[in-house]
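A protein record in our archive is deliberately plain, so that people and models can read it alike. The tokens are whole numbers drawn from a learned vocabulary of local backbone shapes. For reference, a complete record is included directly beneath this paragraph.
>
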Amino acid sequence: MSAPAVLVHRDQELLAAAAAARLLTRIADAQAARGAASVVLTGGGVGTAVLAAVAASGARDAVDWSRVDVWWGDERFRPAGDPERNETGARAALLDHVPVDPARVHVMAGPDGPDGDHPDAAAERYAAELRAAAGPGGGPVPEFDVLMLGVGPDAHVASLFPGLPGLRDERPVVAVRDSPKPPPTRISLTFPSLRAAREVWVLAAGASKAEAVRLALAAGTDVARAPAAGARGRDRTLFLLDSAAAAELPD
């Protein structure tokens, strides 16, 4: 795993704009090198703000959106279109405004999906989709070019919360029950899947995230206490912060 680098921006607006520019460049570079790109999206205020900044960018057409595979790090187990779903926010902020290939937008199903009200089956279905995208001889998940994560005040990432069993699960995707943050039922990638990404970007804005960021970057932090401490990319890990979220970091 790569050692994290920290980039601090004055406020959330600048953070979102800078992350959007970085994301567009990274996607374009991946397409130039391999013909396609694979990104994992996150929800939350800052994650959605980044997608909105991508949509508003004059450089967005430098990307061939028909050759971008879109995945999610986690999803609330709610029906399609529910405002609590990360997918709903991503579509409104970006995906409805660019010519993505619907077949390359890989959605985590909710209770209205093919497996009904069975989140474990929905998680297994997503794992199978990831495995198919990895291709023959590949791993259980594709080598994502960029995987973005938000971080909660409790230092959770994706839907991997302190103390819950998903932290130790080796399967690529798990159902999460009894989430301390509503809604209680979710689907999430696990650490082996997160760490398969070439680059992991942890996005955090606001003073409520400062302690979580400090723990995530402190040497020797127990991942069971602060899951964000385990969010690392294979080639690169970036903590993209605003000044409030970085307030408890040493100079």
